[in-house]
Amino acid sequence: MSANWVLKEDEAVELLALLITSARIQMDEPVEYGPLRLLTATERLSGLMLERSSDKTRDFLQENIERIPEMHMIMSDVAAYTAGLDERCRAVAACLLRHSALAEGE
Amino acid sequence: MMSEAVLTNIKTRRVVREMSDEPVERAQIEAILEAARWAPSGGNLRPNRYIVIEDAETRRLIRLVSPGMFQRAPVLILICTNWAVCAEHGLSASDRALLIDVGTAAQTMMLAAHALGLASGPVTSYSKEAVKIILNLPASYSPEMFICIGHKAETVGAGMRPWKKITWRDLTHWERFGK
Ligand SMILES: Cc1cc2nc3c(=O)[nH]c(=O)nc-3n(C[C@H](O)[C@H](O)[C@H](O)COP(=O)(O)O)c2cc1C
User: What separation in angstroms does the CA of B36 have from each of A49, A61, A84, A104, B161?
Assistant: First the structure.
């Protein structure tokens, strides 16, 4: 567990703006855009975190999140898009375990 | 023989979502705005108003409330509907011609930008309420669409793949239905 701050107040407000405006515009937009907006927010957060993260988080961000823009290109290929999201879900679970007492000593 | 220049311009324009920092000349921005003036308008009422945003901090704030604006464009042109003009002519807010006016202006500006060697991209995925506050818009202006204008970045990703390949034939029906 880490007590490091990885966001400045302005950065947090900017991320919040992205999330709340995404929620609003999603009311008028195609359902497929929902994941796109969440991924855009994920990328933004990752970009802000990178400099100030511990090694174990940074590796995860660089390997998984920095490559998210590639996924926007394949939105229309639902199977490939879903597989890409699954891959990142596995990676984030592994990252959570690295941060957790559960996996200590493994 | 008819010139192919206009058709080629129409067919080769693509939305650009990655732009460089290179500024756009004032004369080019004005040429794009002048082109919009010649777009067709329902009843020739011209309810559109254009707001040009070059200031870096204002553009940054707009991007923060525009999840669908992937570009960091040096120039934003916001197409607004001016309700005061509509009220003068008894047009209701639900009149779809108003949005068609936004569309004709948008496409005209993007084609003009393309003809000038500039890149462009439309954006409607933003919070209207947030944009009104950031730009301090008069109450009668409703912000309908941004046109991002700039220069295409040197290295550009592959772009979004289309949902499926479409030709004009897929979109067209000839004559009466049911025959
Ligand atoms: C009404 C309208 C709204 C649009 N909104 C956005 C937007 O918010 N963000 C974006 O990146 N592209 C937006 N676009 C661009 C379309 O995604 C784009 O035109 C389409 O994918 C076809 O690409 P092309 O114009 O390069 O052929 C919009 C286009 C239209 C006509």
Answer: 42, 44, 42, 64, 29
Q: Do B157 and A73 touch (CB under 8 A)?
A: yes
Q: Which of B114, B123, B156, B160 to mutate to test the pocket of ligand 1 (most atoms within 8 A of CB)?
A: B123
**Centroid of chain to Cα A87:** 12
CA distance A95 to chain B (A): 27
Q: Are strands B141-150 and B119-123 parallel, antiparallel or unpaired?
A: antiparallel
Alpha-carbon distance of A15 to A37, in angstroms, equals 12
Query: Which structural domains are found in chain B, ordered by start?
Result: 2-171 (3.40.109.10)
pLDDT in tens, chain B (179 residues): 568 999 999 999 999 999 999 999 999 999 999 999 999 999 999 999 999 999 999 999 999 999 999 999 999 999 999 999 999 999 888 899 999 999 999 999 999 999 999 999 999 999 999 999 999 999 999 999 999 999 999 976 656 666 778 999 999 999 999 86
Cα–Cα distance for residue pair A23/B5, rounded to 1 Å = 42
Interface of B with A (CB under 8 A): 64-68, 125-127, 129-130, 157-164
DSSP letter string, A31-100: TTHHHHHHHHHHHHHHHHHGGGS-HHHHHHIIIIITTHHHHHHTTT-HHHHHHHHHHHHHHHHHHHHHHS
Residues A30-77 have pLDDT tens digits of 988 999 999 999 999 999 999 898 888 898 899 888 888 778 778 888
Global pTM exceeds 0.80: yes
- What is the least distance, in Å, from the CA of A105 to any CA of chain B? 42
Tokens at B40, concatenated: 């067709």
